[in-house]
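Appendix B, example 12.
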Amino acid sequence: MSTSPTRVLVLNSGSSSLKYQLLDMRDSSRLAVGLVERIGEQTSRLKHTHVANGDTREQNGPIADHEAALKAVAEELSRDGLGLDSPELAAIGHRVVHGGMFFTEPTLIDDQVLTEVERLIPVAPLHNPANLTGIRTARSLRPDLPQVAVFDTAFHTTMPESAARYAIDPKIADRHRIRRYGFHGTSHAYVSRETARLLGKDPADVNVIVLHLGNGASASAVEGGRCVDTSMGLTPLEGLVMGTRSGDLDPAVIFHLERVGGMSTDEIDTLLNKRSGLYGLCGDNDMREIRRRVDAGDEEAKLAFDIYVHRLKKYIGAYYAVLGRVDAVAFTAGVGENAAPVREAAVAGLEGLGLAVDAELNAVRGDGPRLISPEGARVKVAVVPTDEELEIATQTYALVEKNSR
């Protein structure tokens, strides 16, 4: 008696990297994980781990392009008996950063989908081209296999127009697709749902402020399982202070830098996306190093940390107002999950809103979702590890199963 295939390969293609995970959706277990980095360089590296036995292998040397990278990944998977030709492979799920307003849910990939993703390149010039390359390569290797695009922006398409629209001429905005799209959507969807589970409630009954704090950082206001506001906008530049991105900025700063500073558009783009944020303020974008410097009395690092926290606190307050009632604030991603001082500072002084952290609970490191607020707190404060790959795999598998019935 044959059984349906249950494995999903998740691919996340960056401009010079390829992250992947192979999951078995019977129990959401990971079978293999890996990363190819510095694609197109002489110093490319592939790191592959077979999860069942903990075996990790590395390849070092030139990998010319994404096609070569995915073929190398396929070879590593085959060595573990998990190859792309396996009859147990149900689908490949692709992270696609920008889906605009056209894609509001996971989507089976065909030529029309690729055309639309390509049309969105002007609003996601760093991400969508790399995502497309990964998709096309995977389709060439397994043209018979269902391939699904899961969009970072999809979770945020439930925002009301009052939150998604910028206050500019609507005709110009529509012509150039200018609106707030939001990003990190798979993370915000997963974490808001897991936070409700942690509270023992249905997501439809819970209002959550999700703080996804990594090198890229974003906040969202989630009302009953639906996003009603988010901090990133047309691009991932808007919103919170990030590792190298400025976040919110008076638009006139750009004109000033061009007219008075003599900087070109490309130079300003590089400044705001790659040389700003924590890195621009103090020369470090690793929160661990910044905290070490703060503890050592470094004033430059302290100011960077204070600016970071000030912006974070503003968004917590703003989204509290948007939601009206908040059941929980959830911290996630690299900084959110691991930097206890950030969590403590972000809610300090917000006791009047029902927010506080228990110092002992906050200091405990753990792998799973946990509450760090005092017992009986009106608003729960939680640490909820994100799992974007599992979210992509779950959405991919659900769509393929639905379409096979």
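The first strand starts at residue 7 and ends at 13. The longest helix spans residues 299-323.
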